[in-house]
Amino acid sequence: MGNTNSFGNVPLLKGWDFKPSDYHNSLGLLTAQIENTNLCNLDCEYCFRGGSSSDEKKRFDKEISRSQLFHSIEELAELGVKTINIIGAGEPLLDPAMGDLLKYISSFNITPVIATNGSRITTELIETFDRTGSSIIIKMNSLNNDLQNRLVRRNWFADRRDYGLRLLIESRFNKPSTDYQTRLGINSIVFQENKNEIYDIFRYCRNNNIMPLMSTFIPAGRTKDKTDKEVSMEEFLKIGREIQKIDREIYGINYNRLLPYLGGVPCTQCGKSSLYLTISGDISDCPGQLHTVGNIRDISISEGLRRLRERGSNPEFSCPARLNYWKQIGQLVDLDKY
Ligand SMILES: C[S@@+](CC[C@H](N)C(=O)[O-])C[C@H]1O[C@@H](n2cnc3c(N)ncnc32)[C@H](O)[C@@H]1O
Ligand code: SF4
C-alpha cells in the first residue's frame, strides 16, 4: 500500500488531528480512552461493550469511584496526554456528572472527545461542550430510521439522535476554525445491512465537514464471534477503494490508508502513545484488545503504560485487533498486493 504512515490531507477531528511524527516522537502518552458509565439507554445488537443481554448494561459493582477516575486523569495529564476520548462503557451522556468530568479534563488543557449515541444532547450540554473545547462523535448506522431503530432496539432513537445532530450543527461544531478542521464526527459501523448506504453517509459527512469514522465490527462483546452480518476484510477494502476514489475525484482528499477506517482516518487509539482505562479500572490497549495489564487499584498509569509498551506498538496506525481477527478466521488479505 506504500506510504501508510502519512495521513495525507485527510481532515481530522479536533483531538485526533495529530501528525504521525507526534506519535513517533512522543515519550509519554498522546491520547487515552476512558469510560465514565456503564449505563446505557439503547441495546444495540452489535455493542462491543455489551454482554448477551441488555441486563448486562446495568451499573457494575466494581466500578472505580469518581475520585479514582480524576486521579487517573491527573496521571494521564502528567504523562502528556493531549486528548481523552470518553467512549462508554455505556452512553457517556447518561453520567449526571458529565459536565464536571469535561471541566476537569479541560482544566489540564486536554481535549475531551465524546463518543455518544446522540440521544441525550441538549442545548445546555452543548454549552458545556463548547466551554470545555470538546469534540463530539455521534452514532449513525443508517439513514433509514426503521433500520437504525431496529439495530439499537429502540423505536424512538433515530429522531432523538437527529435532533442532537441538528443542535450540534446549529452550534457550528462542524465549522473549521484556525485551530482545527472540525469538532464533529460520525461513527458508522459497516456491515451487511448498511453497506450499500455507507456511500451516502460518507458523502453526508464530507459535504458537511464532519469527520467520518467508519469501520467493521470490533471483535469484542456482541461482535466477538463471526456472524453473517459482518463484511469480510476483502469487501471492506473494496468499499474503501471506492471511497478513496470519491475522495480523490470529488473532494481532493488524497491518502493511501484503507484500514481501519474509511476516508483515510488513522487509528491513533492503540499503540505506544495511547491507552484504555475501563470503568472497572483495568488498563488495556483498546476496546478490541481488552486483555488487561493491570488495574489502577494496584498499579499506576505509568506502570500500565510501561507494561503495554512491552507488548508492542501500532506503527502503521491500523487495527491490530481487526487484523488478528481476520487472520484467525482465514480472511486476511495481503495489503501490499491489494
Ligand atoms: C461503545 S460506543 C459508546 C458511545 C455510545 N454509547 C454510542 O454507542 O455511540 C462507541 C462507538 O462504538 C460503536 N460500536 C459499538 N459496538 C461496536 C462494534 N461491535 N464494532 C464497532 N463499533 C462499535 C458505537 O456505535 C459508537 O459509535
Ligand atoms: S453501542 Fe453504545 S448505545 Fe449501543 S448499547 Fe453499546 S454503549 Fe449503548
What does this entry look like structurally?
The chain has 338 residues and is of the alpha/beta class. The protein has one domain (20-328): TIM Barrel (Alpha-Beta Barrel), CATH 3.20.20.70. 32% of the residues lie in helices and 12% in strands. The protein has helices spanning 20-25, 66-78, 98-106, 123-131, 145-152, 157-170, 198-207, 233-251, 301-310, 320-328; strands spanning 31-34, 83-86, 111-116, 135-139, 184-189, 211-215, 274-277, 282-284, 294-295. It has a nine-stranded mixed beta sheet with strand order 6-5-4-3-2-1-7-8-9. The protein is globular, with a radius of gyration of 19 Å. The model has no long low-confidence stretch (mean pLDDT 90). Bound molecules: S-adenosylmethionine and iron/sulfur cluster. Iron/sulfur cluster is lined by residues 40, 42-44, 47, 49-50, 88, 90-91, 117, 152.
Keywords:
about 30% helix; binds S-adenosylmethionine; 10 helices; alpha/beta; single chain; nine-stranded mixed β-sheet; binds iron/sulfur cluster; TIM Barrel; globular; 9 strands; about 350 residues
Number of helices: 10
Overall 3D shape: globular
* Neighbour order of strands in the largest sheet: 6-5-4-3-2-1-7-8-9
Average of the residue pLDDT scores? 90
Q: Identify every distinct bound molecule in the structure, by name, code or SMILES.
A: S-adenosylmethionine, iron/sulfur cluster
Question: What is the count of β-strands?
Answer: 9
Largest sheet: 9 strands, mixed
SSE diagram, text form:
Blueprint: H1 20-25, E1 31-34, H2 66-78, E2 83-86, H3 98-106, E3 111-116, H4 123-131, E4 135-139, H5 145-152, H6 157-170, E5 184-189, H7 198-207, E6 211-215, H8 233-251, E7 274-277, E8 282-284, E9 294-295, H9 301-310, H10 320-328
The structure holds S-adenosylmethionine (SAM) and iron/sulfur cluster.
